[in-house]
Write a structure and sequence with these properties.
Layout: E1 3-4, E2 7-9, E3 12-14, E4 21-26, E5 31-37, H1 41-60, H2 62-79, H3 81-92, H4 96-117, E6 125-128, E7 132-135, E8 143-147, H5 153-166, E9 170-174, H6 181-193, E10 200-202, H7 207-216, E11 222-226, H8 229-239, E12 245-249, E13 254-258, H9 264-276, E14 286-292, H10 293-308, H11 328-343, E15 347-350, E16 354-355, E17 365-366, E18 369-372, H12 379-382, E19 389-395, H13 398-405, E20 413-417, H14 421-430, E21 435-438, E22 452-457, E23 463-468
Parallel strand pairs: 1-5, 8-9, 8-11, 9-10, 11-12, 13-14, 13-20, 14-19, 18-19, 20-21, 21-22
Antiparallel strand pairs: 2-3, 4-5, 6-7, 15-18, 16-17, 22-23
The structure holds ligand TXE.
């Protein structure tokens, strides 16, 4: 009998009403190790009723009251960091070291950040005295839906639920059916801290079934979704006719622009990370590496050498840098793109194959793969692969680099490596992406939803971060 994950509704951990379950596999071993509720519309109805009942008291508890619950939740999560990191690693295939240093700490930070931000929230007043005073009153909307993906399970799950809860909303949340475990464990912690029943409800199951039931339910006023672009479009089709508020964070095909004047060693180490962290399964990973021609040969040689040092292996081993990809189907999708790249004329410089690390022979692993020789407009360079696969391409001028960078339909993130301030200004304005990281990657400040982070090395070799308040508009 496999362990049965439960839904969390009205403060209780309960089985799905229809008692149907889905299989949950450990990607590193292929082992079927738990069962996930295959929830449906009737489970959603129950959860919405409980959230609607909980809403007035949660709203009226005020910012300090809500903050106190959330801070307690962050504290017990921090106490259990090792347990959660192990669960995340097993459920998703990612290295335990990554779950321990990135996923779970960031989940704790998400909860703490919004729990304290709400204490300092303020709004604008427009004083047209003596006749009138206009002010903006921010109020919770009621019951909201949060649907998150499998690549950063608890990290993205908490990033969605924390601001909603802190603002006084009650939440119906659904983690990915591929990675349900840490959301389930979080429900146990909500019980432990005595979070009022119905404030947070966690439903498990398939996107096309329970996910759509969440999106369609008339009692749910807003949807926050992160996942595939095609799914986002389905959700928008359901939500638009009933005028739900909608936040969609979808795919990316992010360019990395490397100029010859960059701070080389930092660039090289960071580009390895921005390519292959979490097996390349982060929507913010850079997958199209564009290099100024005068630096191209040196970069290619060093980059391939560094990538070959990355250990693909058992996620529990400390030396492992790349774990398993999320599923057998996703492994096939990635390998399919590698085959396509070769058909399109690409040359594989390293990687390209599935691997079976010792002790994980039935798991779903792919070697970190670097491909060159492809035109910027081929499918490999235009479509999101979402795996450990990058292409490298030389360019001669800024205009050419920008043309390649902006050629895709995505506009999520980009990375720029240069020491030239004027070039930085030109490129960050011309590049069509919501986030531009300059001389760094994945630095985030939760106060700016899509920050423009700049980091320059001075001639004295001291580095300092500089966050501009400018927010770029996505494509
Ligand atoms: O994600 P899905 P998939 C990209 C990546 C990947 C592709 C597909 O390219 O290969 O998307 O991945 C729920 N109504 N990203 O298919 O299906 C689903 O249950 C409501 C980028 O695994 O979009 C899960 O909880 N919900 C991405 C969540 O949506 C629905 C991260 C995401 O699953 C639904 C993941 C529906 N009709 C994949 N269909 C990123 N931006 O970080 C599915 N879901």
């Amino acid at each position: 009998m496999k362990f049965e994950i439960k839904n969390y509704i009205a403060g209780e951990l309960i089985a799905p009403i229809a008692s149907q379950y889905l299989d949950n596999f450990a990607p590193a071993t292929g082992e079927l190790y738990s069962l996930v509720p295959d929830s449906e519309a009737q489970d959603v109805a129950l959860a919405v009723e409980s959230a609607q009942r909980a809403f007035p008291a949660w709203r009226d508890l005020g910012a300090e009251g809500r903050s106190a619950y959330m801070l307690r939740l962050a504290d017990v999560l921090e106490r259990d960091i090792e347990k959660f990191a192990l669960a995340e690693s097993k459920d998703s295939g990612k290295p335990l070291s990554l779950a321990r240093t990135m996923d779970i700490p960031r989940a704790i930070q998400n909860i703490r950040f919004f729990a304290t931000a709400i204490l300092h929230a303020h709004t604008e007043t427009h004083d047209a005295s003596p006749a009138m005073l206009n002010y903006t009153l921010r109020q919770p909307i009621g019951v909201v839906g949060c649907i998150s993906p499998w690549n950063l399970p608890l990290y993205l799950f908490t990033w969605k639920i924390a601001p909603a809860l802190a603002s006084g909303n009650c939440v119906i949340a659904k983690p990915s059916e591929l990675t349900p475990m840490t959301a389930y464990l979080l429900a146990e912690l909500c019980q432990e801290i005595g979070l009022p029943a119905g404030v947070l409800n966690i439903l498990h199951g398939l996107g096309g079934k329970v996910g759509e039931a969440i999106v369609s339910h008339p009692g749910i006023k807003a949807i926050s979704f992160t996942g595939g672009t095609a799914t986002g479009s389905v959700i928008a089709r359901h939500a638009a006719p009933v005028f739900k508020k909608l936040s969609l964070e979808l795919g990316g095909k992010n360019p990395v622009l490397i100029f010859a004047d960059c701070e080389y060693d930092t660039m090289l180490a960071t580009t390895v990370r921005s390519s292959f962290t979490n097996q390349g399964q982060i929507c913010l990973c850079g997958s199209r590496i564009l290099v100024e021609r005068s630096l191209y040969e040196r970069f290619r040689q060093d980059f391939v050498q560094e990538v070959q040092k990355l250990t693909v292996g058992n996620p529990l081993h400390e030396s492992t840098r790349l774990g398993a990809v999320i599923s057998a189907g996703h492994q096939q999708k990635i390998l399919g793109y590698i085959a396509l790249a070769q058909e399109e004329g690409g040359k594989i410089l390293t990687g390209g194959k599935a691997v079976k690390p010792e002790g994980c022979e039935n798991g779903w692993f792919v070697e970190p793969t670097v491909i060159e020789g492809l035109p910027y407009d081929c499918r490999t360079n235009q479509e999101e692969i979402f795996g450990p696969v990058v292409t490298i391409q030389p360019f001669d001028t800024e205009e050419e680099a920008l043309k390649y960078a902006n050629s895709v339909r995505y506009g999520l993130a980009s990375v720029l490596w240069t020491q030239n301030l004027s070039r930085t200004q030109r490129i960050t304005q011309a590049i069509e992406s919501g986030i531009v990281w300059v001389n760094c990657w994945l630095m985030r400040d939760l106060r700016t939803p899509w920050p423009l982070a700049l980091r320059f090395k001075t001639s004295s070799k001291e580095s300092y971060p500089l966050i501009l308040s400018k927010t770029f508009c996505g494509k």
